[in-house]
Amino acid sequence: MKKALKIIIFVICLGASSSGLLVALNNYTSPLIAKNEELKLKSSVLEALNIEYESVKVEQVFDNNVKVVSKDGLIFYRYQDKAIAFQFSGAGLWGPIKGIVSIDSSLNKISNIKILKQEETPGLGGRITEESFLNQFKGKSFRPSLIFVKGPAAKDNEIDSITGATGTSKALEDLLNKTISEYVAVLER
Fold first, then answer.
1. Pick from 42, 107, 150, 166: CA 20 to 30 A from residue 52's CA?
2. Backbone phi, then psi, for 174, in 5-degree steps?
3. Closest CA to 125 of 171, 79, 63, 85
4. Are the beta carbons of 84 and 103 closer than 8 angstroms?
5. DSSP per-residue letters across 98-132
6. Measured in Å, how far apart are the chain's first and last C-alpha atoms?
7. What does each of the 189 residues of the chain score in pLDDT, given as a tens digit?
8. How far is CA 138 from CA 57, 63, 129, 189, in A?
């Protein structure tokens, strides 16, 4: 009985000290993680808006060039009169997809797209982060909507989908069309 009591006390003390250490570590790292996420967002917005920056001056360049505007509960990132960027996020085939899309000031064409987060199959759907795929969006019209096609894109609103990743391509197509139309409708009001 005495031996079992010692084991129980030992386990409780070990659990309490481990929990305390984890709470302290979480409290220490949470602000650092939040700051890194903020820097990642700001650098992605700068890239989407085609603004050059040095990695050590992300915040300064962002603050000097990008105006953050909230309209109807949506957040927009405006770069002078050249382009407007906003976040998109939603379900991919296997997990969430999150990114930044920028459009020109005429509200007709995509300027750039950056993927911040995705959980698609590496080598297939995960290719949505590759520059060769994302470069297709530059200058593409999103009116009436983006269309992902199999094979070379022939029209102004077509994107060559990823072979073998039909589900991811369809999910990204739906996500972009929905988000862009929602944000552009607010901008046109």
1. 107
2. -65, -45
3. 171
4. yes
5. EEEEEEETTSSBEEEEEEEE--PPTTTGGGGGSHH
6. 76
7. 788 888 888 889 888 999 999 999 999 899 999 998 988 999 999 988 988 888 788 889 999 999 999 999 999 999 987 889 999 999 888 889 999 999 998 889 999 999 999 888 888 888 888 898 899 889 888 988 888 888 777 788 888 888 888 888 889 999 999 999 999 999 888
8. 26, 25, 14, 25
Block residue for tokens 């939040």 = 34
Which residues fall within 8 angstroms of residue 96, CB to CB, at 6 or more apart? 89, 90, 117, 118, 119
> Residue-wise over 73-82: b if at least 16 C-beta within 10 A, else e?
eeebbbbeee
What percentage of the chain's residues is helix, strand, coil (to nearest 5)? 50, 25, 25
- For residue 148, give the amino acid letter: F
Element (H, E) at 58: helix 58-65
